[in-house]
Design goal:
By secondary structure, the protein is an all-alpha fold. The chain has 18 helices and no strands. Helix 2 runs antiparallel to helix 6, helix 9 runs parallel beside helix 11 and helix 14 runs antiparallel to helix 18.
Length: 371
């Protein structure tokens, strides 16, 4: 169905990725942000013109947000307070007030990939990644086409996952304050049940992490206070999320499941190599990111037998986190004059990308329909 439209749309999508990967490996370092900005605009254009079929998530999203789209501000605030995902209600309502139904997926795409490219650019900058290796990190991120399609179609889970990852990265790698990111955590917490799960994981790490006893006690007290204050909404969100495990009739795309498993293998390979570098005294690798990646990957594997949605979405986070571990691997390979790890990772990325186009979620993408 719609073979011509999907074929042309995916060809343009693939061509744009190839061109950007080539350009980013050729330009001077100071032009990298410009290239990423251009690619962000291209992706947002793809998002804006996305034409969802009746079976697509975005088609259903548009139907059920119509319930509160026509409420007044006072009415939607009252409804949001009684809902288990209030930030989603307010976020979608605000964008619907533009009168353009395409703004929801476009703005979401801009936020998600804007944050991700901010981190990609940061990796290039702080690690001074060689020009010839820049494309490796970008392809590693973009290979799983479900990330793009879930961003512009599923909306909530991809947005919540990216926001939590951005906070983790900025706090772990750049040393930013958690307090500054509190509004982002609250937004993700009440956006989707996956956001609640990821934030719980995040705060467990904060409590058991390397810090003083006083800080641990303070974090525990703050966490308990927040849970008590927002327990009604949090409980509703977690109860909603448990449906992904209890639901025996859950929609499953077997090919996307295969893609997720290959992505887990890819992340696992990065983690194994990262531990090897740590063992040999590598000081450039961020040990906290390695631990995060290990735990998220473990949860992906543990939930694989009982759910389709949870491991697929957590695989996104695992991919994001492990992306921050790629440079030390690239540097070690170049130092030794070998490229085995790069070849293995890029081969897996190409397999993931091809399956995403042919049978994964991305194969449902089209930006026009012939009459």
């Amino acid at each position: 169905m719609f073979l011509y439209e999907r074929g042309v749309s995916l060809a343009v999508y693939t061509l744009s990725l190839i061109i950007i990967c080539c350009i980013i490996s050729c330009v001077r370092a100071r032009r990298i942000k410009t290239v990423l900005l251009i690619y962000l605009i291209i992706l947002c254009s793809f998002a804006y013109f996305y034409n969802p079929h009746i079976t697509a998530d975005l088609y259903r999203v548009r139907q059920y947000i119509a319930y509160w789209s026509y409420l007044s501000w006072d009415g939607v605030v009252k409804y949001a307070i009684s809902n288990s995902q209030p930030t989603w209600v307010l976020y979608s309502w605000i964008l619907q007030q533009t009168g353009n139904i395409n703004m929801l997926q476009t703005v979401t795409c801009c936020i998600v990939f804007g944050l991700l490219f901010r981190i990609v650019g940061n990796e290039y900058k702080i690690n001074k990644v060689e020009a010839k290796n820049r494309w490796v990190i970008l392809l590693y991120l973009m290979a799983n086409g479900a990330i793009f399609l879930q961003t512009i179609s599923g909306i909530r889970s991809a947005l919540a996952t990216t926001i939590v990852f951005y906070c983790i990265y900025m706090e772990t790698v750049e040393g930013k304050s958690l307090v500054l990111h509190a509004p982002l955590y609250v937004f993700a917490l009440f956006l989707h049940s996956i956001g609640a799960l990821l934030i719980i994981i995040r705060f467990i790490f904060l409590v058991i992490g390397q810090s003083s006893a006083l800080k641990k006690i303070f974090r525990i007290l703050v966490g308990v206070a927040l849970v008590i204050a927002f327990w009604g909404t949090i409980a509703g969100s977690l109860q909603y999320g448990s449906g992904y495990i209890d639901n025996e009739t859950e929609y499953r795309n077997i090919w996307q499941l295969v893609i997720s498993i290959i992505a887990m293998m890819q992340v696992g390979y990065v983690n194994i190599k990262s531990h090897e570098l740590i063992k040999h005294g590598c000081i450039t690798i961020n040990r906290s990111l390695v631990r995060y990646s290990d735990i998220v990957l473990l949860i992906c594997i543990m939930t694989l037998p009982v759910s389709y949605a949870v491991p697929m979405r957590l695989t996104f986070l695992a991919t994001f986190i492990s992306m921050g571990l790629l440079y030390p691997l690239l540097y070690a390979q170049n130092t030794k004059g070998k490229s085995t790890d790069i070849k293995i990772l890029m081969s897996l990325s190409l397999v993931i990308f091809m399956l995403s186009i042919l049978r994964g979620d991305l194969c449902g993408y089209k930006f026009f329909t012939l009459i």
